[in-house]
Structures are given as structure tokens and as C-alpha cells.
Design brief:
heterodimer; A: mainly beta; four-stranded antiparallel sheet; B: seven-stranded mixed sheet; 0% helix; globular
Amino acid sequence: QVQLQESGPGLVKPSGTLSLTCAVSGGSISSSNWWSWVRQPPGKGLEWIGEIYHSGSTNYNPSLKSRVTISVDKSKNQFSLKLSSVTAADTAVYYCARSSVAGTNPWGQGTLVTVSS
Amino acid sequence: DIQMTQSPSSLSASVGDRVTITCRASQGIRNDLGWYQQKPGKAPKRLIYAASSLQSGVPSRFSGSGSGTEFTLTISSLQPEDFATYYCLQHNSYPRTFGPGTKVDIK
């Protein structure tokens, strides 16, 4: 079955760019699914960031759209998230997940990114 | 954006209790809703998809119902491993939105 694994720096400086990658195993990123990012600040609820299709089509949360870029690398079977101009409010656990007409599942284990100098 | 609300925000229950959590959407979302369980330090785990379909491997004590704007998650007999926070997620329109969560703890 499909598994997802996030990776990237756990610490980012304020005003910098957060960059994460999600490796997909057990299935092809070129399948008929969307590939999503969700985040969860410590002790708070879940927020949908956006998603990408293997063609490169994207959908973003308007609240983050000006700062977010999601891209796909089919040769590596992975997709990535970049969030620019980060502040402490962007400190969160970031999850990647697979999405389809049936919803979002499975999820990666998540990775904590802290924004601090 | 579609706003998702959940009630209650938290509840205390005993092992063996029947528990019901409600999720309401600010506009109709057909049955484009999933329920997730999250334990501390873990990723959300999907329990229910398409509002009422049980995810493979999830115990049958979990059930979902509803369509349109009102949805419920029911745990028929609460077990010790069910103490967690539960979220609903709509995937009918963009942006996708989650409910604020319902924390279920031990009475």
C-alpha cells in the first residue's frame, strides 16, 4: 500500500523559506490522485495547505496562496512544499497525504518545523 | 469557504459508553466528508470516508451517517484505545476545511 514520508529542515529562520519533500512509496505519483499538504500548529487543529496533481495542476488555500508553492518530481516519485516569508505562526507539524474523490488518505507521519532565529 | 463546526468540543466518557460527535457544514457538501482520529504525536487516521463508509481495518464500533450539512460519528461502545481527538474534513469544495476537533477523554 501507498506510504508517504516527509523530510526537510526542522528549523527555519524568520523571513526564510520552509522547504519540505514528501517521498511516495508503494505506488506511483502519476496515478489518478492528488497529493496534499496539511499542517497543525502545536496544540491546535488541522489546516489544509494545498495539493498537486502529477500534471502539475495545483489548488492552494487562499489564506496561504501568496506564499505557497507545491511542485512534483515524477522521476523521483515525490512532491514538495515551499512556504516563503515564514514567521513563528508557521511553526507546525507538516503532513503530506494522498487525496482522491474519496477523500484524503493515507497520511505521512508528519514533521515538525519550527520557525525561530 | 465552507465552515465546519463540531460539537461537542470535548467530552468525558467511560469505557463502554456510546459516543456521538456531530459535524455541521455551512453549506451542503453531499457526502464528501471523512472522519479522522488523532492521538498525541501521531498523524490523523481515517475512520470513515464518504460520510458513512468504514475504512478498511477500522473496528465496526465506529460508524458514520449524514449527508448535506449534518453528519455524525458514533462509537457504539467506547474502548480504552478510542480516547483521542476526532476531526471531520470536507472535500466537496476548495479550500478543503477541517472541523475544529472533538477531544474524547476518560471520565
